[in-house]
Amino acid sequence: MKTGSISRHAPQRTRARSWGPPLITALAVLTAGAAIPAPAQDAANLLQTKEFRLERSMAPQAVACLECHRTATPAIFTDWARSGHARANITCLDCHLAESFDPDVNRRHEEQYRRSDHPYGTRDYYVPVASVVTPRDCSRCHPDETEQYDRSKHAATVEIIWKIDPWLNGGMNSAQERATGCFYCHGTVLQSVDGRLDPETWPNVGVGRINLDGSRGSCTSCHTRHRFSLMEARKPEACGQCHLGPDHPQIEIYMESKHGDIYTAFGDQYEWDAAAGTWSPGVDYRGPTCASCHMSGAGDVRTTHDVTERLSWELQAPLTVRPSEFQPFPAQTHWETEREKMQAICRQCHGGEWIENHYVRMDQVIEEYNEAYFKPAKEMLDALYEQGLMDRGRFFDEPLEVEYYELWHHEGRRARMGAAMMAPDYTWWHGFYELKKRYNDYMREAREHLETGTPVYRAPDYPNATGSTTRPPEVLGAAPR
């Protein structure tokens, strides 16, 4: 096969897995019928041996990739060899192949085809490749999953934080704090300099990453390279990479709940490798994980890669609203429809009254948080700004701004999420208990400033507040809303 015959947008469809050099194999002969000895005069009427020969092989360039990486990066090769991709004969080129004019072509990799120490290091095996595999690349084989992912909050999370996050919009943290912290989960805006990825933006597998080909997200956030394991993505630890800590401790909340307790006790008996779309409660697993509630199919509910589905509240927002009312990223769903989907998932294991009463309690918790805590705190913050006792220019350089932020971003979220996922310690001790203490201290100090007219202390030397406040055009331009 000639180099020019390989196209990124028309991947080879007749390849099959092979294991050793030369990594090119042919399937065995299949016999439909065997000849039976008989008199010569009857030979014309007998079944004859019929051969079906199927040639399934790799392009020479794909062989070169595998042979080189087998020695250069043996762990990558081993991961691929044990993957479902390898079993389907999906090779490096099916995912990494690029056009020479693509903005994400790895120019540095071209040096591998000017080697004298490797039999595959010649221009005969040259193909342009991209280091970054994007959802657009994955969509060639997984179109539905990519479309679902693209409409989710995961894919839009960089857009969301640039719309609402005071750390970014106020420049209150540095570029390095963002790259190694915020953007590691949310995603960077990838940049390339002379065909090499900018270290300010790479490495990164954030769920909302803006890729050089214009696509959003990273499938390897959950299905890590190069095994791309269903089992890994189904386990709660995959979500716990990002959903943890003081502001959204879903992994801790889950592990405290009865669901997490069942997973701890019986998880080693789950059938983690069931085929996509078939992973079933009561058959393959006893207690749900994050994926089985928010993504996997069950009963009449279909599998989805849009984690925005099945949500009836926006629990991470300052004021709890319906997902369609979340202004930075209004969901294109109706909360009652999505609640019915989630309840259908619950019904796989729970009775009707249990489910209905759980949602009654959750709605009550949300109403109490909104009315008794957030709204009064927001009114006090607005009053301080209106009377000129706090500066609107920069957030976090005044203690009461930090107190207000953590009131909803830390304790407020933990109380709401704990109630939603049935983790009482997070609902009360890490949630409302801490929320009461912060609320009382915040309101006391705010009233003192309003009554005396004294400005709130403002830090003149807030550390490392050097981040750019310019919104990257690739972020809001990637998916206009």
Description:
This protein is an all-alpha fold. Among the domains are: 1-24 and 52-131, no CATH class; 361-452. Helix content is 42%, strand content 2%. The protein has helices at residues 60-72, 74-81, 84-87, 92-96, 135-138, 143-150, 157-164, 166-169, 175-186, 230-234, 236-240, 250-256, 258-266, 290-294, 335-346, 352-386, 399-420, 424-452, 473-478; strands at residues 25-26, 30-31, 51-52, 55-56, 192-193, 196-197. The strands form 3 sheets. A two-stranded antiparallel sheet has the order 1-4. It has a two-stranded antiparallel sheet with strand order 2-3. The chain has a two-stranded antiparallel ribbon with strand order 5-6. The protein starts with 24 loop residues before the first strand and ends with a helix.
Distinct helical segment count: 19
Strand runs, count: 6
Structural classification? mainly alpha
Shape: globular
Strand order of the largest sheet: 1-4
Unreliable parts: 1-39
The Cα radius of gyration reads: 28 Å
Mean pLDDT: 89
What is the helix/strand order? Answer: EEEEHHHHHHHHHEEHHHHHHHHHH
Helix content: 40-55%
How far is the N terminus from the C terminus? 45 Å
Largest sheet: 2 strands, antiparallel
Work out the strand percent: under 5%
